[in-house]
Design brief:
By secondary structure, this protein is mainly alpha-helical. It is built from 18 helices and no strands.
Length: about 450
C-alpha cells in the first residue's frame, strides 16, 4: 500500500497495541475465569501461557504485519510463495474480527449502561438479568459503542485512533491504580488476595490449561491479525520481541490489577467469586451499593471499564476497516460507514439474543453471545495462532530466516536461534494438542 498511514510515535504504537489487548478480556473475562478456575492456580497457568505461547505468536504477528505493510486480509498473499494458499486465512481473519465485534460491542454497551446508571445515581435497582431482558438497552448502547468507534476512526490513524487511545490508556492506568488501592483497604482484602494470588496446584487440570491458553490468546487478540495491523503501521527502529514484551507486560499489569479490585471486594461483602460473566456487573454493583460513596466509586470503576473496552473496540475496528479498504479500495470514511453497518447488524444477534431471538447453540442457557465467542475464542484465535507459527517458522511458509530478519530489525531484544525450537515446534504442538483437548471436552449440550 503506497502512502501507508503511520503512527506518530513509539509510545503511540505500544499504547495502541496494548489498548487493543487490554479490554473486556482483562477486566471482564479474566476475573470471572480466574474465579471459576480456582484463582491463583489459574493465574500461574495463564502467565505461563502468555510467556511461552502468547509472546512468540505476538512477535510473529508484528513481524508479518511490518514485513507485508498491508492489512491481514492481504498479508499472507503478499508474503507467501507463488502457488501457496496461506492467503485464505486473511479472509477468515476479516470474518473473525467482525465476529469478535458481534458480541464485544454488546458487552461494551452494557458497561456504558452501568456507567450512566451510576453517574445518574439510579443504580440501586441495577440487575444483570433485567438489563439482558431489555432489547432497547442492549441495542441502544451497542449502537453507541459502534457508532462512536467508527466516527473516531473516520478522522484517521493519528488524529483519530492514536490520539484518543493515548488519552484513554493513560486515564485507564490512573483509575486502575486508584481503584486497586481502595480495594486493599476493604475488610476482606486478605482473604481475596489469598484466593487470587496463592495457587492450589491440585486444581490444575486439562480444562484449566485450555481455558488459560484461550484466555491468553483472547486478551492479546492473537491469531486473527488484530495485532499484525499495528505492525504494519510502524518503522524498523525497534526489534519486535521487545515491543511484544512491553505490550504483554502492560496487558498483564491491567489484568492482575483488575483482579486486585474485584476479589477483595467479593470477599469483603460475601459475594460469589465464581459468578461467571455476571461477576463484573451484578457482583461489583452489589459491592458499590454497600460501600460508602459507592455511587462515585462505581462511576469511576465503570468509566475505567469503558476506557478498557473501547480501546479494544477501536483497535479491532481499525483492523476491520484496514482490511475492508485494502480489499475494496474504498476511502477511510466510506469504509467506516459500511463496516459500521455490518458490525452493527451482526451485533444485533447478540443484543437481541437474550430477549427476542431465542437461540440456544450449546448447553442450556447459552445464547448468540456464546456462539460468537466459541467461534472466536475456541477456534479462530488458537487456529490462527497455529497458522502464524507454521507460516513463520517453516520453509513451506514464509520461513524462519525471513521472520528472524524482520523481527530483529532495529534496536532492542532479539529473537535468538536457540529459541527456534520453541517457535517452530513447541508453540504449534501445544496449541494443536490443547485445541483438540478443548474440543473433546467442550460443553456441547
Amino acid at each position: 500500500m503506497e502512502n501507508r498511514e503511520r503512527l506518530g510515535s513509539r509510545l503511540g504504537f505500544i499504547l495502541l497495541s496494548a489498548g487493543c489487548a487490554i479490554g473486556c478480556g482483562n477486566v471482564w473475562k479474566f476475573p470471572w475465569m480466574c474465579g471459576q478456575y480456582g484463582g491463583g492456580s489459574f493465574m500461574v497457568v495463564y502467565i505461563l501461557c502468555l510467556i511461552f505461547l502468547g509472546l512468540p505468536v505476538l512477535t510473529m504477528e508484528f513481524a508479518l504485519g511490518r514485513a507485508a505493510q498491508t492489512s491481514p486480509a492481504l498479508m499472507f498473499q503478499k508474503l507467501e510463495k507463488p502457488g501457496q494458499k496461506w492467503g485464505i486465512w486473511g479472509y477468515v481473519s476479516l470474518f473473525a474480527n467482525i465476529a469478535l465485534m458481534a458480541f464485544y460491542t454488546v458487552v461494551t454497551g452494557w458497561i456504558i449502561y452501568y456507567f450512566v446508571k451510576f453517574v445518574s445515581g439510579s443504580y440501586e435497582l441495577l440487575g444483570f438479568g433485567a438489563m439482558l431482558s431489555s432489547p432497547s438497552v442492549n441495542v441502544g448502547y451497542m449502537l453507541v459503542a459502534v457508532i462512536s468507534s467508527f466516527v473516531i476512526l473516520s478522522f484517521g490513524l493519528q488524529k483519530g485512533l492514536e490520539r484518543v487511545t493515548k488519552v484513554m490508556m493513560i486515564a485507564l492506568l490512573i483509575l486502575l491504580v486508584v481503584l486497586a488501592g481502595h480495594s486493599m483497604t476493604l475488610s476482606g482484602a486478605k482473604e481475596g488476595l489469598k484466593f487470587y494470588l496463592v495457587p492450589d496446584f491440585s486444581k490444575i487440570d486439562g480444562t484449566v490449561i485450555v481455558g488459560a491458553m484461550n484466555q491468553a490468546f483472547f486478551t492479546l487478540s492473537l491469531g486473527i491479525g488484530s495485532m499484525a495491523i499495528f505492525g504494519s503501521y510502524i518503522n524498523k527502529d525497534h526489534s519486535l520481541l521487545g515491543e511484544a514484551t512491553n505490550v504483554i507486560i502492560l496487558d498483564t499489569f491491567v489484568a492482575v490489577l483488575a483482579g486486585l479490585i474485584m476479589f477483595p471486594a467479593c470477599f469483603s461483602y460475601g459475594l460469589q467469586v465464581n459468578a461467571g460473566p455476571s461477576l463484573l456487573f451484578d457482583t461489583m454493583a452489589s459491592v458499590f451499593n454497600n460501600m460508602a460513596g459507592g455511587r462515585w466509586w462505581g462511576a469511576l470503576f465503570f468509566l475505567f471499564m469503558i476506557f478498557a473496552a473501547m480501546s479494544t473496540v477501536l483497535g479491532v475496528c481499525e483492523n476491520i476497516l484496514a482490511m475492508v479498504c485494502d480489499l475494496t479500495g474504498w476511502s477511510r470514511k466510506k469504509g467506516c460507514l459500511i463496516s459500521g453497518i455490518v458490525v452493527a447488524v451482526l451485533a444485533m444477534t447478540t443484543a437481541l439474543g437474550f430477549n427476542v431471538i431465542h437461540f440456544q447453540p450449546f448447553a442450556e442457557g447459552s445464547a448468540w453471545l456464546d456462539l460468537w465467542d466459541f467461534f472466536v475464542s475456541n477456534n479462530a484465535l488458537p487456529l490462527g495462532s497455529l497458522i502464524f507459527a507454521l507460516f513463520c517458522c517453516n520453509k513451506f511458509g514464509w520461513g524462519w530466516d525471513k521472520f528472524l530478519a524482520e523481527a530483529n530489525a532495529g534496536s532492542g531484544m532479539k529473537v535468538r536461534n536457540w529459541m527456534k525450537p520453541i517457535f517452530r515446534y513447541f508453540v504449534p504442538i501445544v496449541i494443536a494438542f490443547l485445541y483438540i483437548y478443548g474440543m473433546l471436552h467442550f460443553n456441547w449440550k
